[in-house]
Amino acid sequence: MSWTIGEKLKITVFGQSHSEAIGVVIDGFPSGVTVNVDKLESFMKRRAPGQAFSTPRKEADKVEFLSGLNVDGKTCGSPIVAIIRNTNVQSKDYDNIKLLPRPSHSDLVSLLKFGEGRDIRGGGQFSGRLTAPLCIAGALCLDLLESKGVKIGAHIYSVGNSFDLPYDKVDEIIPNNQVDFPAIDKNQSAKMQEEILSVMKEGDSIGASIECKIVGVPATIGEPMFDGIENCLAKAMFGIPAVKGFEVGAGFDVCKKKGSENNDELTVKEGKITTVTNNDGGINGGITNGMPITFRVAIKPTPSIAKAQQSVNVESMEEETLEIRGRHDPCIAVRAVPVVEAVSAIVFANLLI
Amino acid sequence: MSWTIGEKLKITVFGQSHSEAIGVVIDGFPSGVTVNVDKLESFMKRRAPGQAFSTPRKEADKVEFLSGLNVDGKTCGSPIVAIIRNTNVQSKDYDNIKLLPRPSHSDLVSLLKFGEGRDIRGGGQFSGRLTAPLCIAGALCLDLLESKGVKIGAHIYSVGNSFDLPYDKVDEIIPNNQVDFPAIDKNQSAKMQEEILSVMKEGDSIGASIECKIVGVPATIGEPMFDGIENCLAKAMFGIPAVKGFEVGAGFDVCKKKGSENNDELTVKEGKITTVTNNDGGINGGITNGMPITFRVAIKPTPSIAKAQQSVNVESMEEETLEIRGRHDPCIAVRAVPVVEAVSAIVFANLLI
Amino acid sequence: MSWTIGEKLKITVFGQSHSEAIGVVIDGFPSGVTVNVDKLESFMKRRAPGQAFSTPRKEADKVEFLSGLNVDGKTCGSPIVAIIRNTNVQSKDYDNIKLLPRPSHSDLVSLLKFGEGRDIRGGGQFSGRLTAPLCIAGALCLDLLESKGVKIGAHIYSVGNSFDLPYDKVDEIIPNNQVDFPAIDKNQSAKMQEEILSVMKEGDSIGASIECKIVGVPATIGEPMFDGIENCLAKAMFGIPAVKGFEVGAGFDVCKKKGSENNDELTVKEGKITTVTNNDGGINGGITNGMPITFRVAIKPTPSIAKAQQSVNVESMEEETLEIRGRHDPCIAVRAVPVVEAVSAIVFANLLI
Amino acid sequence: MSWTIGEKLKITVFGQSHSEAIGVVIDGFPSGVTVNVDKLESFMKRRAPGQAFSTPRKEADKVEFLSGLNVDGKTCGSPIVAIIRNTNVQSKDYDNIKLLPRPSHSDLVSLLKFGEGRDIRGGGQFSGRLTAPLCIAGALCLDLLESKGVKIGAHIYSVGNSFDLPYDKVDEIIPNNQVDFPAIDKNQSAKMQEEILSVMKEGDSIGASIECKIVGVPATIGEPMFDGIENCLAKAMFGIPAVKGFEVGAGFDVCKKKGSENNDELTVKEGKITTVTNNDGGINGGITNGMPITFRVAIKPTPSIAKAQQSVNVESMEEETLEIRGRHDPCIAVRAVPVVEAVSAIVFANLLI
Fold first, then answer.
1. Within 10 Å of residue D210's Cβ, how many Cβ atoms?
2. Segments in C238-304 forming alpha helices (H)
């Protein structure tokens, strides 16, 4: 099924933008673990709207646990279900989309696929809001992984033609909850923010890439061929709306490189065999080699823009001009950074519990 | 398990480079279908070694069906199992790897993960040879898809800094079995071949990208979030050895684009709503929109190169220089083109049967 | 994961006896279907406590839909999540179980498996209350199946040494919502009720068997070997608490029969090949043959009885006498009848959508 | 898919009675294990035909390993594939079945389901011969389990109206390879053999039940609801042809028992809490409690009998009398005993590796 990820630790997301609630089922989580509610809430805030560069809509994103905890607040070995009520629902905003599918949105496929069952309100089940329950599961997994010595950090790697410092130039994982804009280099951060402000003024949006680094994963995790680390991560990352590309280590740069440039030669560090460079992004043959795991995802520009666009009226079958009302994220990638961390945490929690 | 892909049509690959045989189990294939053996053999040849730019090793790759066919050669609704005997096995060639893991190969992770079970001969289960059984399954799926009006074609999109014509400039799927080198544009094909010849002379190898286009898939195929077309394709593609990146439609280029540039505006063609451009690569919200599906994979340079490299002796734990004997593919991507088609066919056969 | 059943239509149950809520995720249900709330509530009542022969505890079992429906109350193609709040929670009742595991209950394995995460309240996740969300999913599936011409009916087949009329003596499926006690033959129904009243007075409980019949399933459904109808039904039925046996058609009686007695000879009816008898219960080689599908499950006596029993104090490790307070179902099978129908419906909905 | 069982250790059976070969894929087996070929062959013999009370057909059942072993004969962590060539193939024997489906066989459903793809030869994929590859996987699993202190033994529990000693009266697991007829009590064994001889003379067959006992499984194995031990065992057991019932512990006897009779009271033995009786068959709430696991399966009489039976000609749609030529097992349960052990071993290997 489409809404579930993971095998040992099965995460199922549910809800639509305007349903009673959105939520997540976390099945397979170890028992006896105390949920760190403060950490969870602080993590959720990073994804929530209402921040700089994001839509000013307010979502309280108050997490309510329905099951899976015992009387002491410890996980009881049964599915943890947590929901967020949809309170700030204004269905009127979306009336014009009903007949005029938004370009590069899922409006058209939703209509074709679900027919009269389609939930048009706020993008229905295709809404980016569904990443909030992913973050609930991710926060629990991040905490679990930290207890096993695994840390995960993502940052905006590029916006338009401005690039941040790549993560392999930095030793430590940057704690993203202490910054306004999730970037490593201050100067580059400013440039990337300028790119966003510039398109914002035009009523346009801009694409970006996110880089993620995972440290502390021991060697030998993952399986050859179809259950390798790359397969699992890629499958999971394309679950995040707007992702159109995924690359590991040197990624698409390998296409331009020679073997003698790209191969990670071996050396010995602290009594262990390790690699001098990390073009393979910590993975060989689908299996971790002990080096940091690094990958990047391409996030397309928010398709909802203020600028006039050509659509087709699904009743008259005539071309019409669509003008999307309301304000939208000029660079959705900014709020996707914690989602990338959350989904990475779900993948690695599956591999390491 | 790592060696299986697909749910409705479950493909399981097995074997090691030097085991008695390699092979594939195809479970879920429709019954009553006649296997087109000629088409199968002609497809297998495209992947086989012994061609221009590839290792001169000869692999007969003779396909033998063990089960799944009835007395008339029709599929009987039970798992189809086909094998290829490993005949040309020279285990001596690989003795020096035992102590000296090859950089950017799976030798080290194989040793760490499988210990004394490790099959060192010819790369064991990590050998690119395992893509041959994938091609058996792929050939059957391609035939099945063709009967449903779906065509799949891949080509070398770039080698080093030389680029072929992108597939969205071409209307038809190019039949790859009629060309020596799987490219669209003749001039660019020549340039890409030169790049390969050049690194070949240096005892080096080079990376490349492969582009694939699928036409004839109806709209509404795929599911939102984790079982979208992109998730399925990405998971499958990283099963091909040496793949380090996957992108759909405009791919990583979206990071540099504005919404107004990237959005695929809608129009009407032959009574159907379609898009003017195809930056989304035929997929919205994980679901096909009826446009051709386009994607690219990054293939790293063959890690086995003649040039001296630094490795570590796993017994003495001392750095040593490794020189890999024998001849290897200077650009493994060339032989990976039919594998990309095969794996795409497996993915779409799963979605369309 | 343990709490999920089904592949095409994935049903996941969650909650504990005393958690905030119990509920179910129904992923894969067709879109555009209107949920029949009246039918749902009437079905839920059949399982609810507070009836004749059942524990007098009151559970409102008010079903609340959190997601999966659009603004018109139609299924939108996304996971349907429905919950029941746990309102009538009296945790005090269960304090003495904490140290004294109840014989033939899951108290001991729960303690050993979940340690300090264990949810002792009301049996935690092992509570029979978890069958309520199964009934929500089942009610939706029953309605869906009815629209495809499939009907499912179960009845108490035996209590102690009293037996109802077997279902193959009856042509029609009996609508269970019109009777107090789910049996076919009135006289036998009275005898079975007497057996229950008799043990009830003794502060004891009694086992029973439930028979289920499914009509309208076309031939050729199911797969050989591990995905046959019997495999799917058996796996699912043992998900109902207290089930200790499952048999199809003639079931364990086949052990005493000769081939010439047990074989279902073939004949022609209304132009179709069918069988004279139905000892195979409508299934050959895992696949439906078009005859009614019949099976029985064995339900053990409720382990919670008023009579004194020997337990062991988990702290002192001394044997102690346990007396379970409160009133419990003297024959839990009575309330399990709709659950058997619900779980059957889930199995066949998976096979037929 | 139908031919696969297990998740961590995935066993896929393939082949038809008269295909080139039948075989098994064992994916997920630990690496570095030496396959005990002698033990494997001795186990295979117990299932092979040509024994007392079985069809005199000779099947060499020579096991050939195609993959999964390294140069030292150790498992290499990759799928182990083993096949048995079908050599003794006489397709003529089955010609009359083509038009006249055998009662209570899968002939009719095979025709309806697979149409012209149907493999009529020797029962095609429905042949009992497919249990041979199950035994290969089972033998490897039995060996693996033995190294973890788990032993599995099955025996004929009843034939017609003759019953063996139940396994809970015996402390040790009986090594079945040392007896001609797999029963515990010598006198009862003789009676059961007489029942078989008696029906054999009549050209008839007889049903039987098999009991299985598993010792050494620690407590806490299994999950609540749908992934309990009973669910897994039941699902797997119905994969064995001719199984029509499955019961655990006291099984269907619970239907006649009171709670005070059926509950397993607790006591302390060797410092551990254990039960006085074992009516629950070692399982509570789907989870092992440390007691021996006991279950029984009902095996229907071989449907292939010499006696004349009524069938229907699928072309003329007229009733015709069918007389099945050749000799068949008068009590197929005898050869199913090692298969029950093998399938149990597959289930528990999945749970314990």
1. 27
2. 259-262
Q: What does the pLDDT look like over D155-199, one tens digit per residue?
A: 999 999 999 999 888 878 877 766 789 999 999 999 999 999 999
Chain C interface residues (partner B, CB cutoff 8 A): 7, 78, 224
Most A CBs within 10 A among D25, D220, D223, hence the mutation to make, goes to: D223
Region A76-95: mean pLDDT is 82
Per the rule left: phi > 0, alpha: psi between -120 and 50, beta: everything else, B11 is beta
Report pLDDT for B327. Answer: 75
Q: How far apart are CA B107 and CA A263, in angstroms?
A: 13
Which pair of structure tokens corresponds to residue C133? 């969300």
How high does pLDDT run on average in chain A? 93
Dist. CA A136–CA A122, nearest whole Å: 21
Where residue A48 falls among pLDDT bands split at 50, 70, 90?
confident
**Residues A240, A297: contact at Cβ < 8 Å?**
yes
Minimal Cα distance from B287: which residue of A? A109
Residue A225's contacts (CB-CB under 8 Å, 6 or more residues apart) are A286, B2, B3, B13, B130, B239
**Which of B268, B281, B287 has its CB closest to that of A113?**
B287
- Residue C314 and residue D268: Cα distance in Å, rounded? 10
Contacts B–C by Cβ distance under 8 A = 3
User: C239–D254: do the CB atoms touch at under 8 Å?
Assistant: no
Min Cα separation B123/chain D (Å): 11
Chain D residues whose CB is inside 8 A of the C271 CB are 317
Structure tokens at D134: 């199950």
For range A27-56, the mean pLDDT: 86
Residue B70 Cα, gap to closest chain A Cα (Å): 30
If we measure between CA atoms, which residue out of A302, A239, A248, A243 comes closest to residue A102?
A302
Report the C-alpha gap between D229 and C2 in whole angstroms. 11
Closest CB to D280: pick one of C104, C126, C288: C104
- Give the chain C residue whose CA is nearest to the CA of A77: C114
* pLDDT tens per residue, range B246-285: 999 999 999 999 999 999 999 999 999 999 999 999 999 9
- The H-or-E segment that residue B10 falls in is strand B10-14
Q: Which chain B residues have a beta carbon less than 8 Å from that of A244?
A: 230, 247-252, 254, 280-281
* Cross-chain CB nearest to D23 (options B1, B81, B91): B81
Tokens of B51: 């061609």
Q: Which residue has the higher pLDDT, C57 or B335?
A: B335
pTM: 0.96
- Determine the 3-state secondary structure of D218 from DSSP: coil
E strand segments, C176-282: 208-215, 243-248, 266-269, 272-275
Asked if D309 and D321 count as a contact pair (C-beta separation under 8 A), the reply is yes
Instruction: With CB atoms and an 8 Å threshold, state whether C68 touches A32.
Output: no
Count of pairs with CB atoms under 8 A, one residue in A, one in D: 3
- Closest C-alpha to D305, from C276, C282, C279, C258: C258
Residue numbers in B near D350 (CB within 8 A): none
Secondary structure letter of residue D69 according to DSSP? B
The model's pLDDT over A311-350, given as tens digits with 9 standing for 90+, comes to 999 999 999 999 988 778 999 999 999 999 999 999 999 9
ipTM of model? 0.96
Nearest to A312 among B246, B268, B311 (CB): B268
Residue pair C310/D265 in contact by the 8 Å Cβ criterion: yes
Chain A residues within an 8 Å CB radius of B259: 104, 199, 204-206, 301-305, 307
Cβ–Cβ < 8 Å for C298, D255: yes
Contact C78 A124 (CB under 8 A): yes
The residues of chain C scoring below 70 in pLDDT are 1, 50-60, 88-96, 177-178
Cβ contacts (< 8 Å) between D311 and chain C: which residues? 265-266
